[in-house]
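Budget justification note: compute hours in this period were largely spent on complex prediction jobs such as the one shown. Inputs:
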Amino acid sequence: MRTIEVSKVTEALKEMCFEANHYLSGDMKKALETACDREASPIGKQVLDQLKENLVIAGKDRIPICQDTGMAVVFIKIGQQVQFIGGDLEEAIHEGIRQGYVDGFLRKSVVGDPLIRENTKDNTPAVIHYSIVPGDQVSLTLAPKGFGSENMSRIFMLKPAEGIEGVKEAVLTAVKDAGPNACPPMVVGVGIGGTFEKCALMAKEALTRPVDERSSIPYIREMEEELLEKINRSGIGPGGLGGTTTALAVNINTYATHIAGLPVAINICCHVNRHALRVL
Amino acid sequence: MTKHIQLPISDQDAAGLRAGDYVYLSGILFTARDAAHKRMQETLERGEDLPIKLEHNLLYYMGPSPAREGRPIGSAGPTTSSRMDKYTPDLMDLGLKGMIGKGKRSPAVKEALIRNKGVYFAAVGGAGALLSKAILSSEVIAYEDLGTEAIRKLEVKEFPVIVVMDSEGNDLYETAVKEYSCDEK
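Corresponding output:
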């Protein structure tokens, strides 16, 4: 049994809030650069140039990449040989987000009740997804999620007879409906299978996979590539102002499902597809 | 076409802009997003005066991140405009000349733009660090309790935007996307 102080979780998350909101991962930066070189529309190219310049300013001057520094989504994978000591783990996670957002000059975008809508003023609570895995390590992924793109996400409970074509159509429909609202070029996270909530969670987790890493399942990899090409033929373009770069990647995760169902969730992320990773 | 426009915007300038124009804005504008719009609507329903003058002014749909020491503002890019669609036609009929945001607008907003010879600009979504560099000063002038959603008066210099919808009913989102779409034409 390995013991870990919960304060280590707080410390790590605090740093990760700053990191994720000021620096994009290498794969995202590279994807934006490649897109800029290939973009056919002059306006589209100008938008992509602005996005590249924006990343430089964000890192250099410590200004968040986007003012919507998101609702904090935390994936925590806990090795089954780990015992947490020194306090309540869940409170330690919220405290990391609290310190990260308050001390880090990040925007507080969370309301405590969805209908009464009073701002909690410290960006808590986080949305936390726990899983128990073999081993004695704890892996933390922080994905601050902006709502311009979150609002354009969709879930479809398809019939099994609709098959792979139905799935593709669902993804393309969600992307086309999102259009300029989701701050393209987007990253499209897709969950196929499971139950209603499982496929939504898979779509969210798919967004944390590097954009240059394809699915290990051959036919899913093909579908990722085909959908990306189709999305980029839609004409939506950077900023929705027309062009050949509408998405940077389509990441699909799958799971077993019921004989009667074919759930598909599409979680759309803007070009500020932020995540930070730490292993404790 | 690239244009440089002084704010508050004149009737002539607003009516003369066309979808697709690149525009650099300089002068004063005001921010308001979801919660501020709701409050303004409630204020009007009570028959009271709004905290800002709408005539010839622009509203920027933006809630900034906090400013670091020595800076006027934090990250300051546009939020999705369609959430304000419900309120926009009334505000335009009261004199509001234009809006800066991102994303599609409702048919009612397009009609209000034509009726009032107004203009809808998009700023690049997700470029908040870059856009903050064009903001010289920021002052909360109403609804301070709303935090990032308070109404702010901004002084901007060469703030980069693009005209998406104009007073003749043109919509760049529709025309530009068609131009680059490889789907059935």
